[in-house]
Amino acid sequence: MRDEREYVDYVQARTPSLRRLAHRLCGEWSAADDLVQECLVALYRHWRKASAADSIDAYVRAMLVHAYLAERERTWSRRVRPTADVAGPSAVPLTGAEHRIDLLAALAKLSRGQRAVLVLRYWEDLDVAQTAAALGCSTGTVKSQTSYAIAALRRLLPNYVPGGLDIP
Known about the structure:
Elements: H1 2-26, H2 29-45, H3 47-51, H4 56-70, H5 96-109, H6 112-123, H7 128-135, H8 139-156
């Protein structure tokens, strides 16, 4: 009973931050909610192991990221999802809401791994080692994927005004 109460308390406290992370990874609230639900079910099954970890938050974040990255391997996720085509890069520097819309569209065009690296490094403010732990890869992979992802964003957003990935 104690384990279940701890699980419920943890989930109630962390669900908003897990939803934000999932949304940043997925780009859609409905997909984010599905991802969080999947993660929380897995967390329930493995609660004793998770609660014994050095950092439950890091453990759960890694679960969420791994579920996001594994989603591409499932047949149901291979369905074509209709999206609006972006007409092309703007001729003027982007700021404010225009910047956010174009940045989200550009992030959606990155590979899942590159998007995950950027979300963890710049939105979740994890360092290279923490990002590598969450992704289950080496720090060198994090560095190279970050570099490739930023280069891809620069190609997709040639008129981007630097200001960081500060989308709420």
